[in-house]
Each structure stands twice: as structure tokens, then as C-alpha cells.
Write a structure and sequence with these properties.
The chain is an all-alpha fold. It has 2 domains: about 35 residues; about 45 residues, no CATH class. About 90% of the residues lie in helices and about 0% in strands.
Length: about 80
């Protein structure tokens, strides 16, 4: 009887560990997506709010500048992550 109880307890612990690991994996993926796609957008948002474009061409120029800044920051983050491997 004790052996069966030990097996059940170890099975429950294993299940709990896999659930915790899967939750940790999901949180890790969310953090990675924010790091890769969210943080590079910050300079573009700051530029947009700082310049406060009103006409179409001002908005278009600010958009282009924001995209360029996004690509630069994205490349820096990817290079930093790649250099860790």
C-alpha cells in the first residue's frame, strides 16, 4: 500500500512540475516577444509624441523615422541575443 501511495505522490509531483514548467515557458515566450517586438517600438512612439505631426507629410516623415529607429533597435537586440549563443 505504501508503495502505491508513493507512486501516486510522485506522479502528482511530476504533473505539478510539468504544469509549472509549461507556465514558465509561456511567461518566457511573452517576455521574449515583448523584448523583440515591444521595446524597439518605444523610440518611434517617443518621436511621434515629441514631434507631434499635424500634416500628412509630417506624419509620413515621422512614421518613416520611427520605422528606421525600430529597425535599428531590433537589429541591436537580435545581435545581442545572437552573440549570447
Amino acid at each position: 500500500m505504501e508503495e502505491r501511495e508513493r507512486d501516486e505522490i510522485s506522479t502528482l509531483r511530476l504533473r505539478r512540475k510539468t504544469i509549472v514548467d509549461s507556465i514558465a515557458d509561456v511567461l518566457l515566450w511573452i517576455a521574449a516577444l515583448l523584448l523583440i517586438f515591444g521595446i524597439p517600438a518605444v523610440p518611434g512612439i517617443v518621436v511621434w509624441n515629441f514631434l507631434a505631426p499635424e500634416t500628412f507629410w509630417e506624419k509620413f516623415g515621422t512614421l518613416v523615422l520611427g520605422v528606421v529607429l525600430y529597425m535599428i533597435v531590433f537589429a541591436v537586440i537580435v545581435a545581442a541575443l545572437h552573440s549570447q549563443d
